[in-house]
Every structure is written in C-alpha cells, then in structure tokens.
# Entry
Amino acid sequence: MPEIVSAKTPSAFAFNRPLRWLHWTMAVLIFVAIGLGVVAAYFPSGQQPRQGLLEIHKSIGMTVLVLVAIRLVWRLATGEPAYRQPLGRLTMLASRAGHAALYALMLFMPLSGYLFSGAGGYSLPWFGLFQWPRLVPRDHVLEHWGEVLHDRGAWVIGAVLALHLCAVAWHVFVKRDEVLSRMTGRSAD
# Structure
C-alpha cells in the first residue's frame, strides 16, 4: 500500500527545502547576470555604466560559482526524490543530459569569466566588499581565450536555459505531470 504524505510534512516526491532554495536563488541570479552582461555590451568599454554593470555581473557570477559548489555537494549527499509516475526512458535521458549541461555551464561560465578578467588584469570584485584573489597570471592569450570561451558559453547557456524552460512548460501544460512540483514543493495533484 503506498504511503500517504500529509500536506504538513515534506513530500517524498519533492526536492528538500535547501535544494529548492538554491535552485530558485540561482535561477534568479543567473538570469540577472545574463541580463546585466547583455545590457553592458551596449555601452562603451571601460566607462560607466558598463563598468558598474560588469562589476555586479562578475559578483553575481562568483556567487553562482560558490552556490553551485554547495548545491552539488548537497545534491550528492541527499540524492533525488522519487517520482510518483516514473518518466519515460527518453524523457529521463533528456532530463539527465539537460541537467548535466546546466551544472557544467554553471561552473564553466563563472570560471571562464574569472579567466577573462583575471588574465586581463580586470577587477575580480564581490559586491564592492573584496576582490577575489588573482590565481592566473596577466596574459593576453589567456585573456583572449577566457573572453572567447565566456562569450560562446553565454550563447550555449542561453540555449540550454531556453530548452530547460520549454521542457518545464511541456511538463506543466502538455504532460500535466509532477515535474515542476518537485522543485516548488507543492503537490501536483
């Protein structure tokens, strides 16, 4: 007989509260960082408001890097909740591939941005409170590759995020399954 989960207890079919908090916090931070990066690109280099926008962009990026490390450790320690109705094999494969790509990009984007800024001799701020240590030498070749990788990665993360959002919409509006409720903590019933 299946276990009945009361509304007052955490669902066995949802991610735990810290993982949900990390997911939604990081989602907001990533979309804000992308927006700031896009807007900054329209202003002249080395001048305000571009410089200020990029300082915030970098600070958010490094925050995401720290949070994704915490999230990965927490996720590995706590695992994934069960599904009430198992996903099909192809859907599960696509889900795993999409999430692996997102985690890789959440690491890749801040690291490539750090490489670009660090090797280029640019600031490595964290919201004006401190500068991250410069762990790479000033080097124009490294700076160039950091810039290229960060720029190309921005297009890739944009595409993967768009696919992620389309997949969520498909689960909510077409499949009408529990996938979104696993990250909101609300019952899909």
